[in-house]
Phosphohydrolase
Amino acid sequence: MKIGISVDNHFDVNHEDGQERLKQQAAYLVAHDYQYYLNAGDTYNDFGKTLAYFQSLQRELGSAVTVRFLAGNHDLVNGISYAEAQSDLDLLYFHEKSLAIPGTNAVLVGNNGWYDYSLSELGTSKTDAEYAQWKRAFWIDRGIDQPVSDRERMQRVLTTTEAALNANAGRQVVYITHFVPDRSFLVYGIDRPYWQMATALMGSQALGDLLGRHAVSQVAFGHLHFRDRPRLLNGGVYYHQPLGYGNKRLFEWKSHDWLTEWQNTLVTVNIPAEK
């Protein structure tokens, strides 16, 4: 089985028409024999648009490719409440869900993820209240509906992830999330005060530790907008290949074409048939 995983497509920020691009994406996935396509979040700055896009992509692909998606922080800014984000609101929405791959010993496990300030460059020199205040003042996540604290939201991620891993013990787990699960992927810089605070909102080391204890085989994530080679970590392979921004304000691409960037950052995981 051939699985494709993408993240940080940012159609609206990149001024791309997702409904037009999905026809090209569908053709590529079918031509290259993918059976599953997973997206790890940040598709639009509006969950309603994100959902409509993936529903259209699944219709375009028909039964040839199974589509699932997660919500990154951008997707959660508009068009969805906290309660809805934690619910089973659509078949394609893969948060807190698992999907066994027929004919193999593998299972896909999805979780949006969140953060608990543990990846912060400033560590405990700042309090939770200071991180939360900075987020409300400067970070896009201030628009996200959230009746609980960041630590409480992250604790739910850990609890539901561990339950899924326990339920699939002994299987090859491919774990997909949006936020960063390990400190080793962070780039720190004491000369950038804004980024020093932003690192607190990148993810959680507790998630990486949990995945390591359960010997998860493959982990794919985004959010950080740096591209890394596949990395062996805690006995598993970690993939971090976000598409990112390609606009005048912030240009992170290698080319000047969205489709080329999507193809070049598409992570491929091959799952062998069970003997």
In short: Residues 150-167 form the longest helix (18 residues). The longest strand covers residues 106-111. Helices lie at 18-31, 47-61, 82-85, 128-138, 150-167, 193-198, 205-213, 258-265. The chain has a mean pLDDT of 96.
